[in-house]
Design a protein that fits this description.
The complex is a heterodimer of chains A (about 290) and B (about 300).
Chain A (H helix, E strand, L loop, with lengths): L2 H35 L2 E2 L10 E2 L3 H7 L2 H32 L6 H9 L6 H11 L6 H8 L13 H11 L2 H11 L4 H9 L4 H29 L3 H6 L11 H11 L3 H29 L4
Antiparallel strand pairs in A: 1-2
Chain B lengths: L12 H29 L3 H4 L14 H8 L5 H32 L5 H11 L4 H23 L12 H4 L7 H13 L2 H9 L4 H12 L1 H17 L2 H6 L8 H12 L4 H21 L1 H11 L3
Helix pairs in contact in B: 1-14, 3-14, 4-8, 4-11, 4-13, 9-10, 13-14
Chain lengths: ~290, ~300
């Protein structure tokens, strides 16, 4: 190593040292520790005892824990509705907003506004709108002489929460809009001269150019969906009858309500594994559908 | 950074009308919750219980907004103060530290830089719930250690204070580092070369030349981290127990559990107040805001 490079190494490490320390203390060590805890009986209900090695018992317990499967299934069920709906609606809105129409900036602002509402406040607003008796939805449905469902009841609650998530996807729309700027105009014009209609141009030109952005949004949506807590915590407390009990709520309850730190650590590791697997699948499949121009 | 401008021209008049119609419907739907929130916040208790409900309050009761500040169980001023204290420390800490780290990644060519940068980007994908349990234990362990040397309730006490919520921000956050690095890379290299020849130290180049040029990007980072704190619910839920330390989000949640299903007009007034600062910030900084989000998408 030359003197110059050694000096650069020293300088570079000095500049990024805050991140290195933070990464070790707040990410690497905690993840390592929780891996160790996940093989321990570590109940804070008996304060004098530290973590006690019990092998894979926590993971065995998990496999036989109906609440684990329920919360995992719930999260997957929610994701299976919220992810596709969110992807389709945000892309559709971005395409509409990308056209040259009058009032475009007003439309854009209105669609972006809900994503600025703090999660806690939007949970309150929607709780009130979903109210079965005095709520807005059932009032409107009643007026139209349609049946008035129990929005947050056992059968519909998940679908209602997924519907609500579509309200605040302004960020995703903005990212799509930025991506749409990269679609080369010459390519669109060339396609048009060749006789391609709007639909054909969308499928063959716009979408392929947009795939990296779609991919980015997909990854962020997967991560976000698996960490959801505030909305069900406020709106349904996981009920009725655990119908909206999400994985993160389960993890939180085990850790901070029942103080089962070992079991909670195991749950955290499973969440990490699932997130990484899904992200990995997305990355792997990306080779087939993402075009980096 | 480019501004986002539309370039698809619609030629068919019917297609244009269809897009307008679609967007009008969507916008009406997107505005409805806001209208309903504000309208409810101006109603009397009796009106909120009316079935079927009315769209406009009659009579208007703007006193709800006064009442929310005087409510015996919802201390709006205190909660706002707490949130602002956490936000201040977080914003200052993350902006300074992320800028320093981003400078290292963007402007110094050192061996191992690519690998470390990839590790840093990968940490964005680790969800908060995965580390929350062990980070909590870590703070507890630190408290036990410092208490042995300095006695109980020393200035390094973590749990029971706001520190666990803002201290991690002082070590840079991956998202902000990424954002600032993208910006620093666009600044001409010649600037720092010239300063280096003049005998400027690397830190002086960063502080005197790069930081002043990067003000817009730093503003984006500050803005987003402020909104992050304002929005955060899980963090305070884990680390704050005493009601006098509640943030606005926690206070609002506790308020809901207490009066849930009854005084909706007060809940909606409180929700409106929680929304207001973020909406105002957005309208003041619209352009910066949108460009900042577009940048996070890899632009």
């Amino acid at each position: 190593m030359t003197r110059e490079r050694r000096r650069n190494l020293f300088k570079g490490l000095a500049f990024i040292s805050p991140w290195i320390v933070g990464f070790l203390v707040f990410t690497a060590i905690p993840i390592g520790l929780s891996f160790y805890y996940s093989f321990c009986d570590y109940s804070l209900t008996r304060p004098s005892r530290g973590p006690l090695w019990i092998g894979s018992d926590n993971y065995n317990q998990m496999i036989h824990d109906p609440i684990f499967w329920k919360s995992l299934g719930n999260t997957m069920y929610y994701a299976s509705m919220a992810l596709p709906a969110g992807m389709l609606v945000s892309l559709g809105l971005a395409l509409m907003l990308n056209t040259n129409i009058r009032g475009q900036s007003i439309y854009r602002t209105i669609i972006f506004l809900p994503s600025l509402v703090p999660t806690i406040a939007s949970a309150m607003i929607w709780l009130w709108m979903f109210n079965p008796v005095e709520g807005l939805f059932n009032f409107l449905l009643n007026k139209a002489q349609l049946p008035t469902p129990d929005w947050l009841g056992e059968r519909l609650a998940m679908a209602s929460l997924a519907m609500m998530s579509v309200w605040s996807l302004g960020n995703t729309v903005v990212i799509y809009l930025a991506g749409l700027q990269d679609v080369p105009r010459e390519l669109l014009e060339a396609a048009e001269i060749d006789g391609a209609g709007p639909w054909r141009r969308l499928i063959s030109v716009t979408l392929p150019v947009l795939t990296p952005v779609i991919f980015f949004n997909l990854i962020m949506a997967i991560i976000g969906t698996f960490s959801i807590l505030t909305v069900p915590y406020i709106m349904t407390q996981g009920g009725p009858d655990k119908a909206t009990y999400f994985y993160t709520m389960f993890n939180y309850d085990e850790a901070f309500r029942f103080l089962h730190m070992g079991y909670a650590a195991a749950l955290a590791w499973v969440q990490l594994a699932i997130t990484l697997t899904l992200t990995g699948i997305a990355f792997w499949s990306a080779k087939k559908w993402v075009h980096y121009g | 950074m480019k501004t986002i401008a539309a370039h698809r021209r619609i030629r068919h008049p019917l297609a244009g009308a269809a897009v307008h119609l679609g967007l009008l419907c969507v916008c009406a739907g997107y505005l409805l919750p806001f209208i309903w929130m504000v309208s409810t916040s101006l109603k009397t208790l009796h009106q909120t219980q009316e079935a079927p409900p009315r769209f406009t309050p009659h009579p208007w009761q703007p006193q709800n907004y006064v009442q929310i500040f005087r409510h015996p169980t919802f201390h709006a001023v205190l909660y706002t103060r707490n949130t602002l204290v956490i936000a201040l420390f977080t914003v200052v800490g993350t902006t300074i530290s992320s800028a320093i780290v981003a400078y290292g990644f963007a402007r110094i060519d050192f061996p191992g830089r690519g690998l470390l940068f990839a590790v840093m980007l990968a940490t964005i994908m680790i969800p908060f719930p995965v580390t929350m349990v062990s980070v909590f234990r870590l703070f507890r362990w630190m408290d036990i250690q410092t208490a042995q040397w300095l006695g109980p309730d020393n200035i390094f006490q973590m749990l029971g204070t706001f520190k666990p919520l803002w201290l991690p921000a002082w070590f840079g956050s991956a998202f902000n580092i990424f954002l600032l690095r993208q910006f620093f890379m666009t600044l001409p290299k010649e600037l720092s070369e010239a300063a280096r020849i003049d005998g400027c130290s690397e830190f002086a180049i960063f502080w005197r030349i790069v930081v002043p040029l990067a003000k817009p990007a730093l503003a984006v980072v500050a803005l987003f981290s402020f909104l992050g704190v304002w929005n955060d619910f899980l963090g305070p839920l884990v680390y704050i127990q005493r009601p006098e330390q509640y943030t606005l989000a926690l206070g609002l949640a506790a308020f809901e559990t207490r009066i849930g299903g009854t005084e909706w007009q007060l809940l909606m007034a409180a929700s409106t107040l929680v929304c207001l600062p973020t909406l105002i910030l957005f309208f003041l900084t619209q352009r910066t805001f949108i460009e900042g989000i577009a940048t996070t998408g890899g632009k």
